[in-house]
Design brief:
mainly beta
Length: 71
């Protein structure tokens, strides 16, 4: 399975270096936890591609890898 997309700021500019993860919430010994199924980092155009995961329902998480200061 493949999922691709872009991460943009509110004005529409691409955001590079964002960690994008595909995860499921599952019950564990310490309560609910996210299990990561795929991960990528956005390129200079804000694009990411996730692959190699089975079809199912997932959470898509996007986290900056460094501080972002809007211009």
């Amino acid at each position: 399975t493949l999922l691709s997309g872009r991460v943009l700021v509110a004005g529409g500019a691409p955001l590079a270096g964002v960690c994008v993860k595909l995860a499921k919430s599952e019950a564990g010994m310490r309560g609910m936890q996210f299990i990561e199924y795929a991960k990528d980092f956005t390129n200079a155009r804000g694009e990411y591609t996730l692959h190699g995961f089975p079809p199912d329902k997932y959470f898509l998480l996007a986290m900056p890898t460094s501080a972002y200061v809007p211009q």
